[in-house]
Amino acid sequence: MSSASRPQPSWLLLLPSLPLEVTLSDIRSRHGSTISQVLQKAAGTSSSFSTVTILDVAVSTNLGNLGNDSESFCYSALQTFLGRLYSLICLLCAENSIDVQCGNDVDVRILLLKEVAVDGPPEDTVQAVEDHHSVGPIVSLRRLAYCGRPWQRVCSTDDEDGEIQLQLFLKLRNEALDESNGKIVIERLPSNSSYPASSTNMTASAAGDQATRVRHNAVAVGGTFDHLHVGHKLLLSMTALVINPNVQPDVNVERSLIIGITGDKLLENKKFSEHLQDWHQRQAAVQSFLLAFLVVNEPLQNLPSTRKEKQDDTLGQIVKNNLPSGLVIEYVEIFDAFGPTITNESISALVLSGETRAGGEAVNSKRAEKQWASLDIFEVDVLDSAEADRENSNHAAQDFQNKLSSTEIRRRLAKKSGTAD
């Protein structure tokens, strides 16, 4: 089979339950070896096929009443948990020289699974994972198994909890799909089974001082999103979590997720600009990542996009996805720091990184001038290698930080191509 006709490698890693309040060092103790092995194998496939391997990491956690079926949620606890998972993945990639410049990059996407019971045979847990939601990033194991994603390989841990989860997944998938045209490779990898699992159910009251936040029907986020990295992925994942879930499908409530993506003209003076992705490439990368977990039960190729080309300097390109759940995603070309947040009054929440806090304050000042309601600001912590692994060498820590910088990624690409100064 030629490389042009070969499907993009796509793998799934199933991880047994972790408590939502787990520390990063504990995640590494429990699952670090398993994740590292899968990353290295996936990177080898990327190198062999000369294409990026997609790795969906589905991790079960004790969400309690903090899942998709609630109009309020513990934002801080969820973003800390996701941030630690992405930090570990970034650190392991740095330690194993997995990177775009090495030609062995892996596109990792984290899905949160509602915790399933592991104290009985798989047959007894089928009903426990049933739910009616069709959007992520929090999904049931049933939705994941039924979705029809073309995974060529499914990896799991070799302990008891991992085996129960894997067998339930395979049972559900066999019920839903005819995969006679291509068998999935199943691989069980060693894990630290001695690490104590937690059965604590994380609820708003059990979250201690973690304040419960209200979800919104119109949420915005903005950025350049050049060479999409794990920092971007955490930001986009948390933005999706802020959207109010469609818990009453019979009630017609407009819900929109608005992604402001910086226009090419504003990026002309960026360092190593010859390796900047253009707006269409960056929009496509953001769309691919978001749809991977926002639409779990619909083949991605069946989701049409509508595109509105740029008309003038105030109205840029717009791409829309109308999802089966009723959610509309808009990807908007922006030409300043405000974008649609000061032209669309219906937006009620803004998600940003901690380092751009001042931008949120400026947006609300502009809205106040129009006598519009202030936006509810949700901050996403900047990923930091300090907690990730203090015993690592300074070199590993620097590689970690380099993977979170689009400028540094472009610099490395320029060096590889011989165009760096």
- Poorly predicted runs of 5 or more residues: 117-134, 198-209
Please, what is the average pLDDT?
A: 80
In percent, how much strand structure appears in the residues? 15-25%
What is the total tally of β strands?
15
Helix content: 25-40%
Question: Count of helical segments?
Answer: 10
Taking the sheet with the most strands, its summary is: 7 strands, mixed
Instruction: Spell out the helices and strands N to C.
Output: EHEEHEEHEHEEEHEHEEEEHEHHH
End-to-end Cα distance, whole Å, is: 40 Å
Structural class, from secondary structure content? alpha/beta
The order of strands across the largest sheet is: 11-12-13-10-9-14-15
Instruction: Give the C-alpha Rg.
Output: 21 Å
Taken from the alpha-carbon principal axes, the silhouette is: globular
Description:
- The model is unreliable at 117-134 and 198-209 (pLDDT under 50).
- The chain has helices at residues 24-49, 75-95, 141-146, 160-176, 230-242, 279-294, 357-369, 385-388, 394-402, 406-417, and strands spanning 10-18, 53-61, 72-73, 106-114, 138-139, 153-157, 185-189, 213-214, 218-223, 255-262, 305-308, 318-322, 327-334, 349-353, 376-380.
- β6, α4 and β7 (185-189) form a beta-alpha-beta unit.
- It has 421 residues and is α/β, with parallel strands linked by helices.
- It is built from ten helices and 15 strands.
